[in-house]
Amino acid sequence: MKILLLSLLLLPLAVFAHEDHDHGDPAEAAEAYPLETCVISGAKLDSMGGPYIHQHEGTEVRFCCRGCLPRFNRDPAKYLKLIEDASEEAPKPSQD
Fold it and tell me: What is the pTM of this model?
């Protein structure tokens, strides 16, 4: 009975932790994302053990931690603009 109860309590945590993360090639994803810092806090994306990755209407947004997500959700357009601006400023790979 205790194992069943514990399993029921932990299952939502496992699903919750899995839902927003991209499981593609980390090296490829790191190259494609234009920022090295959190759009909310300004902290390095790996400052809390790796970035928290969120998909917002098809756009990847990376935070230093999950705690930054509520602030992002209050004004997503503001932060998506920062990511878009950084993408435009990033040097484009040459096609030699």
Answer: 0.63
- Name every residue whose Cβ is closer than 8 Å to that of residue 62 and which is 6 or more positions away in sequence: 33, 35, 38, 39, 45, 51, 52, 53, 54
Assigned fold of 24-89: Ribosomal Protein L24e; Chain: T; (2.30.170)
* Residue in this structure with the two tokens 């809390």, named with its chain if needed: 48
C-alpha 62/C-alpha 40 separation (Å) is 9
> From the first residue on, what is the mean pLDDT of each consecutive set of 10 residues in the chain (96 residues)?
56 50 49 90 93 95 96 97 89 61
The answer to whether the beta carbons of residues 63 and 79 sit under 8 Å apart is no
